[in-house]
Amino acid sequence: MEILGTTLRICVDDLDAAAAVYERLTGATPQRFERGGVSVAAVGCFLLMSGPAAELDILRKVTATIAVKDVDQAHATLAEVGARIVAGPVPTPAGRNLIAVHPDGSVFEYVDRKVTAGS
């Protein structure tokens, strides 16, 4: 499995204020979108999320987002090392993702940029 990079996930109360801070820190323009009732701003290597407490409680359990070349390959490698896949692989607007619990209990999202039909 080829890891291309990581994104740090941060849940915030005020997305506009947080996006301004991280824009200043990184020099990157926030890319905003909505997903499942959660407002998101991707700023450099940071993924800022704001929304209903119930949704954020779930999102806080995911340590980081890991960009990989191919989610299917990541799925196979994760299975080989004893990780438990709890969601996906599923298509998203930017590619595909899955959520895995590693044998040590850490939870990570794996994403690729392969856009498939119907996503």
Automatic annotation (TrEMBL):
Domain VOC positions: 2-113
Pfam families: Glyoxalase
PROSITE patterns named among the record's database cross-references: VOC
Protein's recorded name: VOC family protein
Organism per entry: Streptomyces amakusaensis
